[in-house]
Structures are given as C-alpha cells and as structure tokens.
C-alpha cells in the first residue's frame, strides 16, 4: 500500500514528492523506514506515513473489545505517529539530506497518516492521539486520511491544488481538525471532490451509518446531530 500511495501522490502533485525508503537512511539511524513520503510545497512541507494495518476482525470489530481497540490503535496510529515525529525532528535538525529543502525555508510542517480504514468519530481520534501523546508524540494536528479520500482529491491535486493548503485550511478550526477529510470536503470544500454532490452525500450517509454502528458496538455513546461534524 505504501508504494500505491507514493505513486498516487507523485502523479497527482506538481511539486516535489520524495519517497523510497532508502532515501531516508541517515547517519544517525539504521532505520531506513522513517517515512513513506515527503511533499515539498514551499513554504509548506508534509510528512506522510502509510499503514496497511486494519482493525482486528474478531476481537475489535465483532467482539467490540476496548482493549483490542487500544492495541489496534497502538499499531495503526501510535507506532506510525512516532515515525512521523522522528522524521520531522530529523528534518528540523537538517538530518534528512534527501529532502531538497532547508528547514529555514519552511513555515509550516504537516503530518499525515494514511490508512486503509479509520472510523473518525472524535472519541476514537482523541483516544488515538492521547495514546500517541503518552508515547512521546507531539503532533496535535496530525491528520488521519484514508486511501479512498486521497483518491477523492486526486483530480483537484492534478489541477494544481496544493495538498498542504487542503491540510492547512482543514486545521484552522477545532471542529474541522476532527472531521474526516470526506466530511470536511462534502460540508466545506465540495469543489475539491470528484463526483456529483448528491452522489457524494449519499455515499457519505452510508459511510456514516456504518461507522456509527461500529462505534456503538465498541461501547461509545450514540452520537447526536452535533457529532456529525466530528466524522
């Protein structure tokens, strides 16, 4: 999945996208897999890490076990967020020589985790970020984006929209930070989406209903109309 996401970003984004695990080997680390991609859109830079990990079907999805959920979040979010943090710190210390830009040329740094699936109910997002914080990660605006959502904005990126601008605008308000990218686009930036508004809204409703059913299985309280903005 890492290769697919890197190729998608590379073909869609006009600016520099650095990838290839070997490119991020540094003299300070024997780990070549620091991040899967870095998008350079001066004065912004976006660090992207990809995870293929899915929720455990038996214990988390079917069993609704909260401990199993935490274990999944540890593998899906926390470990990958730590890689993002390390990579960003390396860059800030000028220790990522393969990234063709100097830290002093950058005003904003974005961190994005790409997943195959993620039920972005605010409570789950906050739980994941709390686990990451407890593990030493300091990325309060970390964005969780699914592969489907990247495909949704691919055409807009091809037309010249900056990926960093989408992330920056989405993070301006607390309620929008906690939205899924799908919900943010449908409700606030519909021009970014590929497809007709009625079709997008219908698809969003199906997705929303599926997520709510799963969250209730995990023991989270039923959502209110206000919570729609958190998904």
Describe what you observe in this structure.
With about 230 residues, this protein is an alpha/beta fold. Helix content is about 50%, strand content about 10%. It has nine helices and five strands. β2 (about 35-40) and β3 (about 45-50) form a beta hairpin.
Quick structural gist:
The chain is 48% helix and 12% strand. By secondary structure, the protein is an alpha/beta fold. It has a five-stranded mixed beta sheet, sandwiched between helices.
Principal-axes shape call = globular
Unreliable stretches covering 5 or more consecutive residues: 225-231
Percent in helix: 40-55%
| Total number of helices | 9
Overall pLDDT score: 81
**How much is the radius of gyration in Å?**
17 Å
Structural class per helix/strand content? alpha/beta
Order of helices and strands: HEEEHHEHEHHHHH
